């Protein structure tokens, strides 16, 4: 088959699926903003396209997001037309629709089967909205209207998509029932053969310090340090945690930008805001045991997870981080928020310990308990790895399931969208 992927930051969630399809003998291409010149990557033809914007256009604030998506969709449409005119006629198109790029591809290839990656549908009800009043502000009756406009992109994709793929049931269930029946739940996959426990793991730092499994290491990981991933809750728990664990080293991974949710006040970062909030409560000697590592190379990240004694993971009711699955794969002992997506993966006292997202004291209590109980850490860690290997392994579970989803998609009759 000829298979076309659409993702502004390709490969994104398709980093395993696309090369696997290419290795299976299919002609695989991807339209993306990530490259400036056409090239090959793991058997996939990467094809660039450029976004053309009109900087002078004025819009209602609720339409800014959709305008960006339509702008990208039009640019992708022209790139797709050029690809079609060169003779490329995909049997299957697999797109992450979140940035709107795939909106008009049915107009270019009406006979292609289109599958979309269903990451999240915006919901105005609790806990999807209003989960954290500190950052949501006072109730706003127009919020539901704004989210309805934000979902325009999703609804236009429902009309053209033959099938959807969601990584977790929580994410799939955010979508309306009318489209939910077309969604298959299939996680991206974890390389459990690489992500294994390692009692010899150690990390060295420029200060001369080296940490290993012999040390009391607590880890906290976000792509970016922000409220959506509970950074504020963890930081507010830090003064007590450091007092009660005088030998602990706290390693915090994450960037200074914003991936999700509200932006901080202009000129500030969430990272620094919450450092400033708690720093006066922490003596200098204790603060010296806290290290902000920023974003680190993947090999170093894996080592960090392998040497961690307790890993703390917090999230709003939202998409799960790969880091949670990866920590489980290396037999990490985890304290995590008892929010809906986490509870889909972790069962309390079987594969981890669950606490209320907002309860900093409970986080400290659970972390301290695990640090004092190596038998419990080992029991939870081994059960966590067993669960991930059995249900989320890349090679034996997830990739075969995704490839089968592509085959099933290819066998469908293409939808005829309404006007």
From TrEMBL:
GO MF assignments: glycosyltransferase activity
Keyword list, A-Z: Transferase
Glycosyl transferase family domain location: 25-194, 214-386
PANTHER family in the record: GLYCOSYLTRANSFERASE WBBK-RELATED
Gene3D superfamilies: Glycogen Phosphorylase B
Record's protein name: Glycosyltransferase
GO aspect biological process, one term: lipopolysaccharide biosynthetic process
Source organism of this protein record: Aquicoccus porphyridii
Segments passing through the bilayer: none
């Amino acid at each position: 088959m000829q298979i076309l992927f659409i993702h502004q930051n390709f490969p994104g969630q398709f980093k395993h699926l696309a090369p696997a399809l290419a290795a299976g003998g299919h002609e695989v291409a991807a339209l993306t903003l990530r490259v400036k010149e056409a090239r090959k990557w793991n058997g996939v033809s990467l094809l660039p396209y450029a976004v053309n914007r009109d900087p002078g256009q004025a819009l209602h604030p609720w339409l800014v997001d959709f305008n960006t998506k339509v702008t990208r969709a039009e640019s992708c449409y022209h790139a797709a037309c050029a690809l079609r005119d060169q003779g490329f006629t995909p049997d299957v198109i697999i797109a992450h629709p979140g940035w709107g790029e795939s909106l008009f591809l049915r107009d270019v290839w009406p006979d292609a089967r289109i599958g979309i990656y269903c990451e999240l549908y915006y919901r105005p009800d609790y806990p999807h909205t209003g989960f954290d009043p500190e950052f949501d502000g006072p109730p706003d009756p127009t919020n539901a209207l704004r989210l309805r406009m934000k979902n325009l992109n999703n609804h236009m994709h429902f009309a053209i998509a033959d099938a959807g793929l969601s990584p977790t049931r929580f994410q799939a269930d955010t979508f309306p029932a009318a489209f939910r029946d077309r969604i298959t739940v299939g996680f991206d996959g974890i390389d459990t053969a690489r992500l294994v426990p390692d009692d010899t793991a150690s990390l060295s730092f420029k200060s001369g310090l080296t940490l290993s499994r012999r040390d009391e290491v607590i880890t906290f990981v976000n792509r970016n340090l922000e409220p959506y991933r509970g950074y504020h809750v963890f930081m507010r728990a830090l003064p007590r945690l450091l007092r009660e664990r005088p030998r602990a080293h706290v390693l915090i991974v994450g960037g200074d930008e914003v991936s999700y949710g509200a932006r901080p006040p202009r000129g500030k970062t969430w990272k620094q805001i919450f450092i400033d909030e708690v720093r006066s409560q922490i003596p200098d000697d204790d603060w010296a045991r806290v290290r902000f590592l920023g974003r680190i190379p993947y090999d170093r990240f894996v080592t960090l997870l392998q040497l961690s004694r307790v890993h703390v993971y917090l999230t709003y009711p939202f998409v799960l981080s790969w880091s949670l699955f990866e920590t489980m794969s290396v037999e990490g002992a985890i304290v995590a928020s008892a929010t809906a997506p986490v509870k889909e993966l972790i069962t309390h006292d079987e594969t981890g310990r669950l606490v209320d997202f907002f309860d900093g004291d409970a986080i400290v209590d659970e972390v301290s308990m695990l640090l004092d109980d190596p038998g419990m850490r080992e029991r939870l860690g081994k059960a966590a790895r067993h669960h991930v290997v059995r249900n989320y392994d890349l090679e034996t579970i997830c990739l075969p399931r995704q490839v089968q989803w592509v085959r099933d998609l290819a066998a469908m009759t293409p939808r005829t969208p309404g006007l």
